[in-house]
Fold:
Amino acid sequence: MEDDKEVPSKQLERNNNERLLRQDLAQETDKNSTKYKEFKKFIEELQAELNKKTGKGNKDDDRERERERERESKIEELRKRIAKLEAIVNRTPQQEQDLQDKKAELAELEKEKQQPQEPKKTN
Structure:
């Protein structure tokens, strides 16, 4: 009779252990997947850097990234200049005009940044 009671408890313990093992396996799989993705991204970055240093790779992409960095730099600089001009309480007409010009230039750059890149045309 005691064997009858032990069998279900052993079965429960076994099922519980299997469930825990499956959970552990799923967690490890998720970790490995994340590590793989991070490693793949790292390798791609290294490859891009190596291509840039050796002159290989897509020069159009490099130029586009450079233009984007320049645009971001210019936007940041314009924001600083606008903040300085706005901090002036009694602006001269020249300063007021400069402020309006900077705001217009900033708006144009931000609009340019927001527009999706046009697909490249091939002949």
